[in-house]
Write a structure and sequence with these properties.
- This protein is mainly α.
- The chain is built from four helices and no strands.
- The protein is elongated.
Length: about 140
């Protein structure tokens, strides 16, 4: 149980750290586009902001789910990639169907996956709010 808590905590902290770093990079990219007006940004700022935000969210979401699935596979909790990915998606999105469950002693990982998902979706919300503010930011200066 202690090992499960440790490995789950490392996965959550590492995953959230990578998510925050990627979102920070996306915000810098949006600021650069806003400042330089490159690639036609001045004509379609909301389009660019939402495109960058959507792609970054997809990248973070996919990376997090793949990370959990690979952890499950490395711990030999599943015998194939598809059930590991399915369980990671169901847990990360907090749906948790219950048709696949982890063995006793490793069940805490499912809750930690769900907690990581909740925190990541909170980051998504904050990032989208920030992305929606970019087109009006220069007007408020």
């Amino acid at each position: 149980m202690v090992f499960t808590l440790f490995i789950g905590s490392v996965m959550m902290i590492g995953g959230l750290g990578v998510s925050i770093a990627l979102f920070s990079l996306a915000v810098r990219m949006l600021r650069w586009l806003d400042d330089t007006k490159s690639f036609g940004y001045a004509h379609l700022p909301l389009f660019y902001d939402l495109t960058v935000a959507s792609l970054w969210i997809l990248l973070v979401l996919s990376g997090s789910i793949w990370g959990w699935a690979l952890l499950y596979l490395n711990l030999d909790l599943f015998n194939g990639l598809e059930p590991a990915l399915y369980f990671a998606i169901a847990s990360f999105t907090t749906v948790g169907y219950g048709d696949i469950v982890l063995e006793p002693g490793c069940r805490l990982l499912a809750g930690m996956t769900a907690t990581h998902g909740l925190l990541t979706f909170g980051l998504f919300t904050a990032f989208l709010v920030e992305a929606f503010n970019f087109p009006t930011r220069s007007k408020r200066r």
